[in-house]
Amino acid sequence: MFNRRKREIYSLWIAFRFSRSKQKNTMISFISLSSIIGISLGVAIIIIGLSTMNGFKKELQTRILNVIPQVSISSLDNGGSINDWSKISDNLSNIPNVQSVTPSVNLFALLINGSKSKGVAIRGVDTNSFSTNIKKYIIGNDIQKFENNENDIIIGQGIAKKLNVKVGDELSVYLPGKDRQNINSYQIKTLKVSGLIKLSGEFDDLLAFIPLVDAQKYLDLNNAVNNIELKLKDPFEVEQVLKQVSEKLPTNQSWSLRSWKNQYGYFIKDINLVKTIMYIVMFLIIGVACFNITSTLMMSVKDREGDIAILKTMGASKALIYRIFIWYGFFSGLIGALFGSLVGVFIALNLTYITNFLQNITGVTLLNQSIYFIDFIPSQVDFYDVTLVSFTAIMLSLVSTFFPAKKASQVNPAIALSG
User: Fold this and answer.
1) Residue 403 burial (CB count, 10 A)
2) Residue 373: which residues within 8 A CB-CB, separation 6 or more?
3) DSSP label at 155?
4) Which neighbouring-strand residues pair with 170?
5) Beta-bridge partner residues of 121
6) d(CA 59, CA 379)
7) Which residues are CB-neighbours of 270 under 8 A, at least 6 positions away?
């Protein structure tokens, strides 16, 4: 008789012949095809969904967290001024997860162009570090023209549209007065738009930047600042950094610590929740498709009782028959998983272009930038997810073959051939 390796090859070959041969009952072929299509659709949809969630997470990290402070430190004393920010920055730089520490000045202002106005939060930033982080999001001008003592301002594209201004235009800017004790005090400056920032989301309507030196001058801060910003190597470990920061800050002042998660952490929670739901949906969709495999195999066993009986009379053991139908059902799961993976990966890699094309044709906006932080559908394929989804589909389809394969191995040759 056969050794083990030959038995496996023989069972695989017969299973392949069974899968290729024409069924006596056409309904079996239809259900078999339906199960393969069901697995393919399930795998493809889950891969696309998970890639979309990965895309949102990537855009949050590379687009948003590159612009907003990942950790923001402000003083609750001295009118908010931080005079010894340089020494504090040196201490905070020693925290392992801190990539950079930069001073900034935050202020609220009213931008006016003719009869149009817009309230914004302005950040006075170091021009060198700002140029490095934000350059790829600047449109309409060279970021290098964003210089100290030139009365420059960079505004979001949404702000520019609302105020009907372009690069090179001038704006009247109502700023807080130098007398910070008087809330009615204000000053008016004329600033030149030196660049427009496009993040493709709500931030385009909210953000404006001026050089740090100019902000200090407008608020009469001299060399002081009112905010210290941290950029982290791993922004998702921000809670641990906050604890370390609080231990290194001077104890003779009261401090306010804020992280990006205070304002935008719900995005990560939503992403993780949706991914969990998708995994559950994956099991349900693929599970239903695998139930069709069980039905197909049960019908195939009934349809091929004569073939099974002949194999048994030729000396085939129950174990061999069992393996034949295991392989037979395994093919359906394998084909469905592979085809679904290819389709899912292809669509996921081109999802942004596909959705933009559909938006242009239908005129329907899929993501409202006033609600979400971006106005397009992002996608990033994680091949770990692809492998996990495909492996799960194949394993579920394999499990669904056990009962029909056992039934096939128990066919009585005498009864089957006499019928």
Assistant:
1) 13
2) 59, 60, 63, 64, 199, 201, 202, 203, 264, 267
3) E
4) 192
5) 108, 207
6) 9
7) none
In the chain, where the domains are located: 4-63+267-418, 77-253
Give the span between the Cα atoms of 152 and 330, in whole angstroms: 66
Strands 255-259 and 138-139, how do they pair?
unpaired
Assess whether pLDDT exceeds 90 at residue 324. no
For residue 372, give the H/E element and its range: none
Q: Are strands 138-139 and 152-156 parallel, antiparallel or unpaired?
A: unpaired
- pLDDT 10s digits, 203-232: 788 889 999 999 999 888 888 999 999 989
Cα dihedral across residues 17, 18, 23, 28: positive or negative: negative
Q: How many CA atoms lie within 13 A of 385 on its CB side?
A: 25
What six digits make up the tokens of 23? Answer: 């069924």
pLDDT tier, 304 (very low <50, low <70, confident <90, very high otherwise): confident
Exposure string for 282-295, b = 16+ CB within 10 A, e = fewer:
beebbbebbebbbb
122: β partners: 107, 208
400 φ, ψ (degrees, to nearest 5)? -70, -10
Q: DSSP state, 253? A: S
| Backbone torsion region of residue 154, taken as left when φ is above 0, otherwise alpha when ψ lies between -120 and 50, otherwise beta | beta
> Of the candidates 191, 158, 156, 197, which has an alpha carbon nearest to the alpha carbon of residue 173?
191
Report the distance separating Cα 391 and Cα 394, nearest Å: 5
**Residue indicated by tokens 């009907």:** 164
Q: What angle do CA 375, 379, 383 make, to 5 degrees?
A: 170
Reference 81, options 208, 192, 202, 215; nearest CA is: 215
SS3 category, 208: strand
The pair of structure tokens assigned to 85 is: 């920010």
| Higher-scoring residue by pLDDT: 324, 353 | 353
pLDDT of the residue at 343: 95
Predicted local distance difference test score (pLDDT) of residue 1: 45
203 compared with 89, residue with greater pLDDT: 89
**Region 20-42 average pLDDT:** 74
For 227, counting Cβ atoms within 10 Å of its Cβ (0-12 exposed, 13-18 middle, 19+ buried), the class is buried
- Residue 119, strand partner residues: 110
**Among 249, 366, 412, 319, which residue's Cα sits nearest to residue 10?**
319
**Spatial distance between the Cα atoms of 114 and 377, rounded to a whole number of angstroms:** 36
Q: Specify the length of the chain in residues.
A: 419
